Amino acid sequence: MNYLEKKHIVIFASGNGSNALNLIRYFKKSDSIAVSAIFCNKKNAGVVQKAIDNRVAIQIINKEDFYTSKNVINWVAQCSPDLIVLAGFLWLVPQDFIQFFSGKIINLHPSLLPKYGGKGMFGHHVHEAVLNANETETGITIHEVNEAFDEGKTLFQVKCHISENDSIETISSKIHDLEHEHLPIVVERFLNG
Questions:
Q1: 3-class secondary-structure state, position 161
Q2: Could you tell me the strand order of the sheet in which 154-161 lies?
Q3: What does the alpha-carbon distance between residue 134 and residue 144 come to, in Å, rounded to a whole number?
Q4: Which end of the chain is more exposed for a tag (fewer CB within 10 A), N or C?
Q5: pLDDT (tens digit, 9 = 90+) per residue, 23-75?
Q6: What CA–CA distance (Å, rounded) separates 48 from 44?
């Protein structure tokens, strides 16, 4: 199967890009799925270099491109995505983008939604809230994207235990392990129906 016949993933990320890199590596072995582009809203984010190092197209976007023009919709459409994965992308996705790519956008969130979701709930902010609430478990949620932060239909959840010795750092490590283990499999299952 040649590259054009493969199903294409487009990733949106804002940070270091460990999940983007994990998806790139996982699907390099695939004869039917490929990561075709990464869109990032921070030119100095770690994900940018990871895309370059792995020969994946990278596009830096700004708020005007995303919210007041059709630029990002047009750029993503050129990639013919079968799936758009938000992996640590911190901007709320605009309604026109969601409508244009209806049913093709999923998000990875580092908590057991509906707990600890919404505006400002990302990364260490989530883990800190979980710890401060004396939760005994946390996990990840992969969900469809709609017009509100972290409120789309849940596709997948997995839990991990929190011990009394856990810190923000150890919880973060547990969550990264869950993300890296499960996100590629959920993406593959989504694309293969």
A1: strand
A2: 57-60, 33-40, 7-13, 83-87, 105-109, 137-144, 154-161
A3: 28
A4: C
A5: 999 999 899 999 999 999 999 999 999 999 999 999 999 999 999 999 999 99
A6: 7
Would you tell me how many other CB atoms lie within 10 Å of the CB of residue 62?
A: 13
The whole-number mean pLDDT for each consecutive block of 10 residues of the chain, a chain of 193 residues, reads 79 96 96 96 96 97 96 97 96 96 97 94 94 96 93 96 95 97 97 90
Which DSSP symbol is given to 23? H
- CATH 3.40.50.170 is right for the domain spanning 3-191: yes
Nearest in space to 157 (alpha carbons), one of 128, 180, 179, 125? 179
Residue type, position 166, single letter? D
Per DSSP, the residues of 76-140 read HHHT--SEEEEES--SPPPHHHHHHTTT-EEEEESS-TTTT-STT--HHHHHHHHHHTT-SEEEE
Domain residue extents for the chain = 3-191
- The answer to whether 88 touches 126, Cβ cutoff 8 Å, is no
